[in-house]
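Lecture notes, structural biology module. Today: joint structure prediction for complexes of two components.
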Amino acid sequence: MPSRMIALTVNGRGREILVKPKATLLQALRELGCTDVKNGCEKGDCGACAVLLDGIAVNSCLVLAGQTDGSEVTTNAGLGTIDHPHALQEAFADGGAVQCGYCTSGMVISAKALLDRNPEPTESEIGQAISGNLCRCTGYGQIIQAIQVAAGSQRRGEE
Amino acid sequence: MKYVAKPLPPVELPELRQIGKPLRRVDALGKAVGATAYAGDFTMPGMLHAKVLRSSEPSARIIRLDVSKARALAGVACVLTAEELPDGKLTTDMPGQTGQKRRTGSDAPVLASEVVRFVGEPIALVAAETLDTARQALELIEIDYEPVPGVYDPLEAMEPGAPILHPPDNVVARWKIRRGDVAAGMEAADVIVENTFRAPFVEHAFLEPEAGLAWVDEQGVINIRVCTQVVEHFRSIARALQVPQNKVRIRGTMVGGGFGGKEDITVEIFLAMLARHTGRPVRLAYTREESFAAQSKRHPFVITHRTGVQRSGRITAAEIKLVADSGAYPYLSPYVLLYATIMAAGPYRVDNLRIDSAAVATNQPFTSAFRGFGGPQACLAYEQQMDEIARTLDMDPLALRRVNYFRTGDPNATGQIIESAAWLEESASRALEALGEKSVERGPIKIGQGLASYFQSYGRITWFHDTSRAWVGMELDGTVVIRCGTPDLGAGQVNSLCQITAEILGVPLTDATVYSTDSALTPLAGTSTATRQLYMSGNAVAKAAGAVREVLLGRAQNHFEEELDNLDLADGRVIVKSDPGRSLPLGELAAMCAAEGLALSNLALFKAPFSEGIDPDTGQGRVFPDFTFGSQAVEVAVDTETGQVEVLKSVACHDVGRAINPAAVEGQIAGGSNQGLGYALMEEFKLEEGRILTPSLTEYLIPTAVDFTPTEVIILESGTGVGPFGAKGIGEPALTPAAPAVANAVADAIGVRIRELPLTAERVLAALDENWP
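The predicted structure, tokenised, for the full assembly:
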């Protein structure tokens, strides 16, 4: 099968990319320069490559790029920047939720998807929401706390 | 039993501005927003993609290797075999730092030529225009193996007639310790307790698989961007490639987790060979499966304790035997074994002691450094043995430990005197107090509580003559630059350097910029291993910053015409302490110094205490700069119908000397504990006759966010460490007590001791049912 051109909106910008039939969304995004989307296993075990695909958190290594033509993709880098971080990114940085940082982008994406549908999650709901994101450094406690802090600051921001 | 925490001895630590504050780490925001570049994120124009052909056989002779079809494939730039480097050997040995004699002939070849000794051993390298082409080329390499009998158990490997991996025999390292009179000590005992404990292979499972990019620059220097714990490997690479050491440069990146797994050379040697051969940039990134197959594991151990003890609980003698599985090649096994040997008797005073240990080769993945470096396996055995002794004597586990705990001034197994605070009872009583009363048992659910205490070294072996260097300078606007070769594994290594410098130079943490991990441009700081960076590079950076501070204050003394002790650096200014209205921005002070040619920068060298090696017959002598002490207490619920173990509560309490950044310390302890809980209950890298049964994160399970309740962290600060501001090391010790605490809790719950990790549901059910198949 030949390669085909697909059009995506990535972090708010229209992008076109030629993809091979077997190429995953992970590979396509990294070719587009989205190096915040991390490759940790290429089979959906670790969650390091999680992105929002039309608002839903997915492991981009499990999605064929060809299927995403016309979709909107948000990666962690699309949520905020060093100068203007997202509330989740700021809470992760402040709360000791970042150690090596390799899982962080996927973790923030899963947390974003959670807060989008449940702005006031319990610890256990947070745990479930990030249970597909492996972290080998933190033991998860400071990550769960950071997500609660971010949820609180978002709620206060909306009031 | 209800525990009340033992009062801490009085310690007055001065209130500081930056040290001891849970500040946002300097690396945190870049990582949080996805801006930090990792080793696999770099590309270059004209870059080739590399793949490695690996052995599918655990023990075989290569009788034919034909790469001609792979070389002929369009888009293949080169295929390299062992012929490229006839004598290429890999050693994890830092020249100028390690002095231990190595057993010749057992170092791993860079590429295997005649024999393969484990599944995953590298044989050939391919570089091609695309990754797909590189993969296709691998499949075109023709290789025929002739199976050779292998050995897959270290005890069997020591038997006469076992297949030999490295002549003359499979024992790649031995240590022994002899203290006092063991026979007399056993004679003086009221009871003798003997047990054997086993620990499995464990995978590091850092989130970032090994990756890198290499190119040869216009000076002929081979540049290698790589995630590594050891930039000093540039020397080993130069030696293997037979190029001058000043023609190899390692530019380390932020490491996506190391835990010892990136201490040995990984992709960088292959990248160097391919870049040199092709003259083009080459990228190599391992898949998860390749990372699992190619690199080291935690040593499996079989540890037997025979302990003589009096009714009072006093240990009168101990005989300990340790056998470690080194896998196919020794790598760091001699040192891991040494650590396990020295720590084998635990944080207990044992005057009559006999320890014998061996590391033994098998046709399995090689084992090497992994957080704790033999300490966790030793702790697993000695702390379960302590509980078994307590059960035999019908004593409370803490009461038994209290009789035997090290106290400052006591000699350890090698006769080295414990010089710093040994807050064992302090940490144990705190952890138990926080754990609280036992939960109520319901039906088939049994509740158990377990305690483990430990001692563990930080800093490298003192006969390695360890050093670190750091450079600190002030810019003319009062901001600060730090240059230090420290690799950052994610534990906050470079942040600590910044926080220490900011404290000493009186600037906010955000005014410090750090450059690290470049073997050519940052002063060499040694390895990010052995829980040594805060101790070594922390002291180096404190020394360099102190020298700059002296220059600044000296100039300020003239300016204000005040005594030195009436001046201070704080909040980006130099201030007159008695009259805070009189102050000057550091930028202005720095400009004055620069105008007069005063040195606003300093390169400092910090040396650890140097010692001679230990006595080979008795194992006596100094080995370590200092030790960290702590305890962990765990409560578990065991479902006696399903065998499932649930951790209900976990409390870890460690004396870290001084917490440079308490949030980072908490992260180290909580994260280390989580790895330890996984070690106790979930993790086992399984093999069958040398073939991997857990090839990826699908089969090899590490803890997720829902497996364990986060460990509660209690930080103690004795201020007695040899690190900056009295800090001790905590990175590795954090893992050590978790697994034995769980094992003791499970035994407490079900009344039966399971002597092998992990404590899976199957093992629990088998322990509860003598008729289990």
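Point to remember: Helices of chain A lie at 25-31, 87-94, 104-117, 123-129, 141-158.
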